[in-house]
Design goal:
Blueprint (H helix, E strand, L loop, with lengths): L1 H20 L23 H12 L5 E8 L6 H12 L15 E2 L5 E8 L5 H13 L7 E5 H12 L6 H18 L4 H25 L7 H32 L3 H28 L7 H4 L1 H27 L18 H7 L10 H8 L12 H11 L1 H16 L21 H12 L8 E6 L3 H9 L4 E7 L7 E5 L2 E2 L15 E8 L6 H13 L4 E4 H35 L3 H27 L9 H32 L1 H28 L7 H33 L12
Antiparallel strand pairs: 1-3, 1-4, 2-3, 5-9, 5-10, 6-7, 6-9, 7-8
Helix pairs in contact: 1-7, 1-11, 4-5, 5-16, 6-7, 6-8, 6-22, 7-8, 7-11, 8-9, 8-11, 8-22, 9-11, 9-19, 9-21, 14-22, 14-23, 15-20, 15-23, 18-19, 19-20, 19-21, 20-21, 20-23, 21-22, 21-23, 22-23
Length: about 725
């Protein structure tokens, strides 16, 4: 009775959780933010300036810059029509009333207008409506582009728009196709996929409410990684469980006994694997950047539910279906014909292959005493490892080192904001037009908070920098809310000079940069301003990018060694050994280095990417090392189990042969799910997709299949030092 009731209760519980979590897929935008400043450390200059802007400005609107360009000099009539068009945009929902007049460029080929957008509105929708309104009102031959902070925010929103439907759909279809090829079953792929999807729904339910209660920060980037990580990890754990269940069904006629045995055999590797990933992810809590630190718990929650789903929902579903889940290839007791590997091994050789029969027998000699599952492809790989272990690990190590040699070519020192979105970008085009006809930093000034009695001294220091074109001060009674300041003082507008807005003894200065706010030149200018004004706060778009990159570089140096140390300790406890965990970590780090080196070549010379965010290597490391260790855990826990019964070298061959198929399938699934991130046209996600997908395949087919088995086989039982098994 218990055997029937418990699976039913588990299925009902997961159905209930998924029914509440599923509808939240379309509501994530309600609790997420892609505003870069929101993720900076509280101590960052840009954060402190952002928090004080409201003291000096009546509105916290996000500025958009409408740029009007023509191939010919704009006539007076065309300029007037553009001016009239700008005055009419206040009727667009979400546009604030204080729209600036359209200002002509010195060359007469362009005009620009500053349009504030209410921060509470959907910036993407407002920017789209604004562009359509302006394009419908300007003269023929005049091009319109909306750029500035609001324009780039709209670009990011559009880039992440497919994350709820497109990304999830592509990932699920890819996994389903792989599962069908792996199992060649009608029902089982859907059972496994349901396990992953239910895990994601319940994880999303928890994460959504934590974000709603402001416990966690959620962004489009974090959301995409959560989706992919849960689908990939839950499927991997399910593959491992199904593999053990199939083994047990060949030994037992009772599906309940087979489920129990499979659960016991899968519990340790799944918990160890998931625990390792969670520990690595939680190390991100040490990050100064909230975008990194909040990803740790969000992704860890996803892994927790991936493990729970594989250890509760999947066994319940498999118990409900029994052997029928594998139809039309249901395993039978002691029936080796069911396994494709065994059929491949036992099939008579083709006539042309007879000449090579003695060689084949010699190659497979070391594994003739192995379990039935050892036949086939992975049995031959095990035989190769047994015959030439030192050559195998030396050759694979040399290949990996050659790939890792290109790591210095990875340009991970930040990319311009205009390059964050792949493909066409109106904001990027508008930024280019703005830089061609106006000071490149128009609309995205550097903000400097200075004491009132040091205002003129600060203005002079700002104007002395060649990268600053002009300076203004916030003034409530000035026509546009700010008044230009020169070395002679505040401009008077033909009457009394407006009084600057003073808050707590400070004034807000706005320095327009001569270069685009996200350019290298602008970054150099702001760094120089901070050096010249060390006691003052300098913020703005450029300062935010600087503080973000600096924090990311700091995080890399801090978190990577800690992740390695944590994983090493976990492996030592799991394998009851010191030497084996050290070698496993070293091989995984080498695999990561190779993945990054090859990625650098692909990014620079194939895809032509402009560089990479400093967080890309950190995220790549956390995922590749934590997930790469997963497959070593799957392999080495089985090797240890076999070594206790058959000796270390035989245990290595048996473990490799038995786990080869399931681990390879798991690696392909995880690579496919991360590769799905590339459908989102965001540079960071596209780079992470390639790094993790390539790295997982490299780890699956080279490191775990050849390097680790050959190295451990060559070392022999000493690999378990100092445990009793080494003696």
């Amino acid at each position: 009775m218990i055997r029937v009731t418990l699976p039913a209760l588990l299925i009902v519980a997961w159905l209930a959780g998924a029914s509440f979590g599923g509808p939240l897929f379309g509501k994530i935008s309600e609790v997420s933010s892609n505003e870069q400043t929101a993720y900076l450390p509280e101590s960052a200059d840009a954060t402190q300036v952002q928090e004080r802007l409201g003291e000096f400005q009546d509105s916290d609107a996000i500025p958009a810059i409408a740029v009007f360009t023509s191939n010919d000099e704009l006539t007076d009539d065309e300029q007037q029509r553009i001016t009239d068009a700008v005055t009419q945009v206040t009727g667009v929902d979400g546009v604030a009333d204080d729209v600036s007049p359209a200002l002509p460029s010195e060359d007469g080929l362009a005009m620009q207008a500053f349009v504030p957008i209410d921060s509470s509105a959907d910036v993407g929708d407002v920017v789209t409506a604004l562009g359509e309104k302006l394009r419908g009102s300007v003269p023929d031959g005049v091009d319109v582009a909306v750029t500035g902070p609001a324009g780039f925010t709209a670009d990011l929103a559009a880039g992440f728009a497919g994350i709820d439907g497109l990304l999830l759909g592509v990932a699920l279809i890819a996994v389903l196709i792989i599962l069908v090829l792996v199992y060649r079953s009608v029902l089982l792929p859907f059972v496994v996929l349901s396990t992953s999807l239910f895990a994601l729904c319940v994880a999303l339910l928890v994460v959504w409410w934590l974000a709603k209660w402001d416990v966690l920060l959620l962004s489009g980037q974090t959301q995409g990684i959560l989706f992919i990580l849960v689908i990939g990890a839950a499927t991997d754990y399910a593959l491992l469980f199904v593999s053990r269940f199939r083994e047990e069904l060949r030994r037992s006629a009772d599906k309940g006994s087979a489920i129990t045995a499979a659960w016991k055999g899968s519990l340790e590797p799944i918990l160890a694997s998931g625990g390792t990933v969670i520990a690595g992810l939680l190390c991100l809590l040490l990050s100064d950047l909230k975008s990194n630190s909040t990803l740790g718990p969000v992704a860890a929650i996803g892994i927790v539910f991936a493990m729970l789903s594989a250890l509760t929902l999947l066994p319940a579903l498999l118990y409900a279906f029994g052997r029928t889940a594998f139809w039309p290839r249901a395993p039978r007791i002691d029936d080796r014909r069911d396994a494709p590997e065994e059929r491949e091994h036992s099939a008579p050789p083709a006539r042309g292959a007879l000449a090579f029969l003695p060689v084949a027998r010699a190659v497979t000699a070391p594994i003739r005493t192995l379990s039935p599952q050892a036949a086939g492809l992975w049995g031959r790989v095990a035989a190769l490892v047994a015959r030439r272990p030192r050559w195998v690990w030396l050759l694979t190590t040399a290949v990996l080192i050659a790939g890792a040699a290109f790591v210095p070519q990875l340009q991970a020192d930040g990319v311009p904001q205009s390059d964050l979105v792949l493909g066409a970008s109106e904001a990027r085009d508008g930024q280019a037009a703005l830089g061609e006809h106006f000071p490149g930093g128009s609309g995205s000034p550097a903000y400097v908070i200075a004491p009132e009695d040091e205002m003129q001294e600060t203005v002079d220091a700002l104007l002395s920098n060649d990268g600053v074109t002009d300076v203004s001060v916030s003034a409530a009674d000035a026509p546009s809310g700010s008044a230009p300041v020169t070395s002679d003082g505040i401009a008077s507008f033909g009457g009394p000079a407006p009084e600057p807005t003073v808050e707590n003894g400070d004034v807000l200065l706005q320095a327009t940069l001569s270069d685009a706010a996200d350019s290298t030149s602008a970054i150099d200018t702001v760094r120089a301003l901070r050096d010249d004004l060390p006691d003052l706060l300098v913020g703005g778009v450029t300062a935010t990018a600087i503080d973000t990159n600096d924090a990311s570089i700091h995080d890399r140096g801090l978190i990577i060694p800690i992740v390695l140390a944590v994983i090493l300790v976990i492996l030592m406890l799991l394998l009851r050994s010191i030497l084996a965990p050290i070698l496993l970590v070293l091989t995984t780090v080498l695999s990561f280095g190779t993945a990054m080196g090859v990625s650098a070549l692909v990014f620079n010379h194939v895809l032509g990417f402009p560089g990479a965010d400093p967080a890309v290597p950190l995220f790549g490391f956390v995922f590749l090392v934590a997930l790469g260790i997963d497959y070593n855990i799957f392999l080495m826990t089985r090797v240890r189990e076999e070594s206790i019964a058959h000796g270390t070298r035989q245990g290595i061959l048996r473990g490799l042969s038995v786990t080869g198929g399931v681990i390879t399938s798991a690696g392909v699934v995880l690579a496919a799910t991360f590769a799905a991130l590339a459908v989102i046209p965001i540079l960071f996600l596209a780079q992470l997709a390639f790094i993790v997908a390539f790295g997982v395949l490299l780890d699956t087919f080279v490191v775990r299949s050849l390097l680790v088995p050959a190295l451990t086989y060559d070392i022999g039982r000493k690999i378990w030092w100092p445990s009793r098994l080494s003696r």
